[in-house]
From TrEMBL:
<dbReference type="Pfam" id="PF03795">
    <property type="entry name" value="YCII"/>
</dbReference>
<dbReference type="InterPro" id="IPR011008">
    <property type="entry name" value="Dimeric_a/b-barrel"/>
</dbReference>
<dbReference type="InterPro" id="IPR005545">
    <property type="entry name" value="YCII"/>
</dbReference>
<comment type="similarity">
    <text>Belongs to the YciI family.</text>
</comment>
<protein>
    <submittedName>
        <fullName>YciI family protein</fullName>
    </submittedName>
</protein>
<feature type="domain" description="YCII-related">
    <location>
        <begin position="1"/>
        <end position="90"/>
    </location>
</feature>
Length: 107
């Protein structure tokens, strides 16, 4: 089962300890074959919206930047519970904030 874990921005600035712990966590998941992809996302982005025949394009940043996605990890695990446990471990490393886990369907 594949899951996409997204993380919202945090007010906490990363330090050397965070980078070291996250590096070990990423190495562990990569070696286990669980981590398929990870990355950070630009804060602004572009919103493409369609309504009927009209398609509008709006450049960010947007008013609700706290709700934006700051980063992601695509993982492959045996169960939803395992995905939740990996998210718990991630949150313990990075501290306060929010992450969302969604199952990825398809090939």
């Amino acid at each position: 089962m594949r899951y996409l874990m997204t993380t919202r921005p945090s007010d906490t600035a990363p330090d050397e300890k965070l980078y070291a712990e996250m590096g070990r966590f990423i190495e562990e998941l990569t070696a286990a074959g669980s981590l398929l992809a990870t990355g950070g996302l630009e804060p602004g982005g572009v919103l493409v919206r369609s309504a009927g025949e009209e398609i509008t394009v709006t450049d960010g940043p947007f008013a609700e930047a706290k709700e934006a996605v700051a980063g992601f990890a695509l993982i492959e695990v045996r169960s939803k519970e395992e995905a939740i446990e990996l998210a718990r471990r991630f949150r313990r490393i990075v501290g306060d904030g929010e992450s969302v886990i969604q199952q990825v369907y398809g090939p």
